Amino acid sequence: MNRDKKAIISNIKYIIFGIVIVLAMYFWIQLREAKAGHAQLQELLSDTINHFEVIVTDQGQEIYIQDQKVASLENAIAAGIIEKEDLKNKNLKQIDHIIKLENQIVFYEELIAEVDTPNIVTVDSVDCPDIAEGTYLKVPSTFTYSSEWISLNGIVYGATVGILDLTIKQESTIFLGYQKTGLFKPLRPVVTIEDANPYVRTVKMHNVTIQNKPPFYKRPWWHRLEGAIIMLGTQAILNYRK
Question: Which pairing describes strands 188-195 and 172-179: parallel, antiparallel, or unpaired?
Fold first, then answer.
């Protein structure tokens, strides 16, 4: 009987010790993940300069390259990269990547040169001077321009021009991959944006690869706790049988 009591007391000690160890491991893992998440959020919040590389090809096409950033969905929301309402409105349950671009429409000199604009002459007096037909434009007057990438309708006034309608064709290609950085060096995870429209230029770029958390039973810390519980349970059974 005394032997059974000793075994029970010994097992209770093992169980209490096991619970303490398991709880200590659990809280240590949670604290470490919280610190990592905080550092991750600070990195997203401090990234206000929008670092990205611009490569111009021989054909004049601009390619934008930016390092991939990895963050949890909670941190992406906290950093303002995506809004929680957007997720609800789009009915999105899981997101793997978020890429935000701010583009600027650029009018090149070649585009202006293609628009045939006659001289604008305004007449204030009753006596109209002799002006050759076709060399003047009555104002206000509308105009239209159309090309492969851009079409616009506008109106010309005496000293200003107004745009009534503007349509920009955008053909963006997004690549998520790895870039070589040199011999025997690790590959660099990057996001690459290519836009075929020469009138569109990217001025800001944000990307986040969402770190979706797996279920707790698939996470590494759970396997560690599971191993500790099995080990302590086995030891308790062996002690009881002695």
Answer: antiparallel
